[in-house]
């Protein structure tokens, strides 16, 4: 192979002086060139180790930054418990009485009532094989409470606590031989105990429905009063016979010997249901089934479909039509055929979940549902204990409707027509109602919140918290922590301003003020959480002090926060040997109107006994005196005046307020009149000057313009 070499080409070697100087740190620019490339598989191992090293280093940096931020953060003070109630270590659930006198503790084999101030057991109700997992108390009279319980087997019981004793009423879903066992998963009563709603489940057929009961509250109070009166008379007679003691001169005879006291009866020791006086029975008002799915009219023909359609008095349910399922399927096929090339871009239809949960609120008379407005005394009644519910608002989990039913109408089983239906585009996820039921808030899956003023029959506003965020909890706060501003014109209040607390599924807490002439501007008091352990499992205003919140985190921390700012004020902590029982469903109660806090803690080192029976050493109920927390002194001493959420301004009150305003302004009239007469001279002088200037301008106006117009017209 020929090789061509250029001729006359001289090779000049580079000069030694022109060589670049070697840099001692030039290996930093490209360290890979210092080493030869590794062969496989060592090259892959080196790459994996380098990537693993980089990831570990990032984790170390992240943890170090978090540790620095945690060290710089101002930690809330921690307070230990004041007392430990080991006798209540088997408590499964706890609730406080409305007036703060007692706490009711659900336990295996019964229920107990404990005085908040002395922490002593006042009364107990026991029954074998009954494990209470839910308890709720309602004030129905003067120191008389309706107690609703649900055990682990799904049986709901009604009891009345009064006179330091429990009185058994009934089992709502009592099992009868040869019948079907029904389970109750939710049972709630109205605020004053006039009505009660219970959600029934049939495990065999997987059917669910809601039953509403009318409770004879007044009859129960009269019957209990007569029972207590008889017991007082009997005790007085026994005391009278005991005072007739034998004298010292009398010889001891068998008749005069002191007999041993009789054994305690079941009624005195356990408050059993066998010795409970017979109370008036409850009555079923209505039974409600979940709304039907939007599958179409199940009729076989158009004629039968028209017959099933009602008169159209109720609008918004979405089922009052003659569209059959075949017609809907045909329309879907036509749509898919016309847009075949775009069908793959449509979101997939999610299967509808079965409606297994129901939420309901008992409400008094309002202008949204006219039922009950004919009783003017119920509208103008200021005592909430005398105002009876007239309407129930119901919505099922996953549905897009809030349905209102009248409680004063006669209904047949499962044949109830709603009085009002609110259809929405997004599924309802939460709802809340004020204490006097005048305000109703509804939260949705798309982050919207709607507030209705039921008393006036108007909508107060709509607000969007955040897109793609679900509203999981709504709570109306006491209006005494909200500034009440009067209108510019009326000297009397027409509406009451109040705060609404909203909890989102991302852990963010928002607060907004609803009032006359105010826009619903949400304020974020707690930002969205990043860690799953910081998610709130419980957010509850402290009774009697709604400017304080008690929150429980998924990690087990219990915090007391400022409601309007969201800052953590303090943290009640358990002893190191205990941990909070079930942080996802904690056992927490506040008694004495925000003065005492109760927490249930389990022993960390406790193990199940061989017999499987849980002993009292498994945990304890811890008590905290919140009034002794230094960070809460300003809140404890704060004055809170009672503010009524419902403002019923009568014509007499309006005239009286206007006359008071007129009389109050009478003293300022003389000063205003003198000031007016003093300014009148200057005003007249300015008017005369303006008049003279106008006359001078009119005299100096040239007349040639009129002559030109006259010549042009000729």
TrEMBL record:
<protein>
    <recommendedName>
        <fullName>WD repeat-containing protein 93</fullName>
    </recommendedName>
</protein>
<dbReference type="InterPro" id="IPR006885">
    <property type="entry name" value="NADH_UbQ_FeS_4_mit-like"/>
</dbReference>
<feature type="region of interest" description="Disordered">
    <location>
        <begin position="230"/>
        <end position="304"/>
    </location>
</feature>
<dbReference type="InterPro" id="IPR049547">
    <property type="entry name" value="WDR93_beta-prop"/>
</dbReference>
<dbReference type="GO" id="GO:0022900">
    <property type="term" value="P:electron transport chain"/>
</dbReference>
<dbReference type="Pfam" id="PF21030">
    <property type="entry name" value="WDR93"/>
</dbReference>
<dbReference type="InterPro" id="IPR011047">
    <property type="entry name" value="Quinoprotein_ADH-like_sf"/>
</dbReference>
<feature type="compositionally biased region" description="Polar residues">
    <location>
        <begin position="241"/>
        <end position="256"/>
    </location>
</feature>
<feature type="compositionally biased region" description="Polar residues">
    <location>
        <begin position="294"/>
        <end position="304"/>
    </location>
</feature>
């Amino acid at each position: 192979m020929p090789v061509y070499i250029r001729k006359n080409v001289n090779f000049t070697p580079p000069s030694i002086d022109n060589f670049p100087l070697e840099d001692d740190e030039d290996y930093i620019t490209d360290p890979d060139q210092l080493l030869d490339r590794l062969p496989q598989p060592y090259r892959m191992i080196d790459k994996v180790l380098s990537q693993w090293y980089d990831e570990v280093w990032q984790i170390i940096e992240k943890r170090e930054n978090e540790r620095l931020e945690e060290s710089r953060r101002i930690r809330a003070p921690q307070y230990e418990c004041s007392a430990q109630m080991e006798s209540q270590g088997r408590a499964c659930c706890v609730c406080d009485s409305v007036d703060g006198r007692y706490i009711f503790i659900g336990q295996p084999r019964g229920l107990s009532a404990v005085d908040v101030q002395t922490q002593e057991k006042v009364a107990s109700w026991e029954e074998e094989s009954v494990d209470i997992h839910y308890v709720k108390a309602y004030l129905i009279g003067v120191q008389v409470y309706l107690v609703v319980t649900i055990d682990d087997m799904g049986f709901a019981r009604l009891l009345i606590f009064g006179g330091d004793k429990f009185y058994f009423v009934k089992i709502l879903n009592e099992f009868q031989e040869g019948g079907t066992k029904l389970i109750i998963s939710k049972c709630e009563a109205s605020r004053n105990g006039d009505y009660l709603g219970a959600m029934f489940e049939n495990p065999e057929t997987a059917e669910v429905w809601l039953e509403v009961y009318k409770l004879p509250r007044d009859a129960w109070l009269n019957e209990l009063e007569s029972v207590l009166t008889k017991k007082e008379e009997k005790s007085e007679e026994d005391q009278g016979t005991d005072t007739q003691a034998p004298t010292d001169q009398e010889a001891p005879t068998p008749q005069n010997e002191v007999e041993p006291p009789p054994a305690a009866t079941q009624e005195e020791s356990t408050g059993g249901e066998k010795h409970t006086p017979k109370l008036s029975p409850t009555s079923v008002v209505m039974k409600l089934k979940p709304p039907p799915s939007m599958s179409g009219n199940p009729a076989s023909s158009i004629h039968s479909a028209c017959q099933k359609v009602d008169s159209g008095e109720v609008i918004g349910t979405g089922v009052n039509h003659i569209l059959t399922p075949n017609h809907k399927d045909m329309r879907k096929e036509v749509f898919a055929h016309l847009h075949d090339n775009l069908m793959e871009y449509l979101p997939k239809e999610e299967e509808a979940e079965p409606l297994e949960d129901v939420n309901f609120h008992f409400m008094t008379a309002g202008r949204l549902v006219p039922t009950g407005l004919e009783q003017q005394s119920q509208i103008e009644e200021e005592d909430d204990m005398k105002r009876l519910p007239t309407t129930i608002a119901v919505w099922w989990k996953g549905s897009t409707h809030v349905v209102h039913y009248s409680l004063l109408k006669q209904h047949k089983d499962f044949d109830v027509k709603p009085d009002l239906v609110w259809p929405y585009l997004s599924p309802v996820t939460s709802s809340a109602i004020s204490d006097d039921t005048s305000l109703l808030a509804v939260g949705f899956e798309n982050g919207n919140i709607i507030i209705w003023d039921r008393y006036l029959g108007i909508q107060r506003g709509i607000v969007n918290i955040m897109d793609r965020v679900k509203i999981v909890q709504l709570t109306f706060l006491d209006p005494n922590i909200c500034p009440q501003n009067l209108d510019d014109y009326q000297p009397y209040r027409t509406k009451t301003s109040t705060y609404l607390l909203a909890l989102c599924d991302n852990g963010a807490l928002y607060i907004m003020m609803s009032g006359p002439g105010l826009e619903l501007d949400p304020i974020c008091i707690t930002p969205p959480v990043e860690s799953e352990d910081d998610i709130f499992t419980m957010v509850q205003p402290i009774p009697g002090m709604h400017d304080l919140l008690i929150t429980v985190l998924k990690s087990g921390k219990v915090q007391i926060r400022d409601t309007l700012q969201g800052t953590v004020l303090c943290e009640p902590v358990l002893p190191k040997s205990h941990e909070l029982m079930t942080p996802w469903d904690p056992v927490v109660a506040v008694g004495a109107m925000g003065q005492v806090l109760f927490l249930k803690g389990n022993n960390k080192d406790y193990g199940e006994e061989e017999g499987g029976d849980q002993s009292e050493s498994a945990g304890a109920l811890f008590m905290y005196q919140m009034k002794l927390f230094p960070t809460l002194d300003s809140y404890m001493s704060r004055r809170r005046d009672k503010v009524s959420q419902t403002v019923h301004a009568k014509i007499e009150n309006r005239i009286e307020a206007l006359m008071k305003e007129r009389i109050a302004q009478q003293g300022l009239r003389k000063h205003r009149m003198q000031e007016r007469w003093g300014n009148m001279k200057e005003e007249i002088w300015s008017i005369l000057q303006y008049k003279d200037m106008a006359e001078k301008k009119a005299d100096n106006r040239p007349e040639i313009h009129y002559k030109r117009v006259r010549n042009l017209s000729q």
